[in-house]
Amino acid sequence: MEHVKRYHSLKTIVNGRELLIEGPISGSELASYRFDDGLKAFRIPEQQHQALIEIADLPEGRIIVAREDDLVLGYVTFLHPDPLERWSQAQLPDLLELGAIEISHLIRAGGVAKKLLEVSFADDAMEDYIIITTEYYWHWDLKGTGLDVWQYRKVMEKVMGSVGMVWMATDDPEICSHPANCLMAKIGKRVPPESVEAFDGMRFQNRFLY
Ligand SMILES: CC(=O)SCCNC(=O)CCNC(=O)[C@H](O)C(C)(C)COP(=O)(O)OP(=O)(O)OC[C@H]1O[C@@H](n2cnc3c(N)ncnc32)[C@H](O)[C@@H]1OP(=O)(O)O
Fold first, then answer.
1. SUPFAM superfamilies under this entry (predicted)?
2. What is the interface pTM, i.e. ipTM, of the complex?
3. Cα 89 to ligand 1 centroid, rounded to whole Å
4. Which listed CATH number (3.40.50.1820, 3.40.50.620, 3.40.630.30, 3.10.180.10) goes with 8-204?
């Protein structure tokens, strides 16, 4: 499968900061930007910056950023699922995982997460993919936001739902281990039925239990 990446962008102002939301961008572009210290939800900022640079250059990888001049203040990643996760079992070339979305405290609750996804899905190529995201409450910044798990889950549903990602059932043990965890997905218009069937097969692997 050819992974087509078409650049889109938009401008917005949050907390007096003029932001450019753009992508997919290349690894070398990302390397030329600074990375905000507050982007530390998944790894220390330097390591996360490096990880995103590598994802940007993967054939299927897509990084969309929110930046003020050359300072990255938010990002979202899309790539094939980790080989250790069940979502990679069928080796679907047209399945991408929204692996991480993070916005700096400096500009949170200003609509930037939703705008990152708006720019991500502005590319018609996204209609060729099943896009999934796995929501685990232990990845959430409950302390920083002061939200409880259900309030945070609501925020994630609003962010993901803004581009048509919907909750989907699964018997994945990690997801089922807490009721606030969930799988969300969007199946693109041009995804063939065989891929959807393979995805459904990965969602339910313990049918004999029911
Ligand atoms: C797959 C994964 O990556 S899971 C992990 C997700 N990432 C994290 O938890 C990292 C730390 N958190 C963050 O980076 C951010 O808080 C995010 C990504 C969760 C949200 O980003 P933001 O830019 O603040 O979200 P955005 O402003 O677009 O808000 C989306 C909706 O949630 C609401 N919202 C956002 N933050 C809050 C809050 N703290 N309290 C109440 N509502 C909130 C917004 O008002 C908006 O609601 P609306 O659709 O009714 O207008």
1. Acyl-CoA N-acyltransferases (Nat)
2. 0.98
3. 30
4. 3.40.630.30
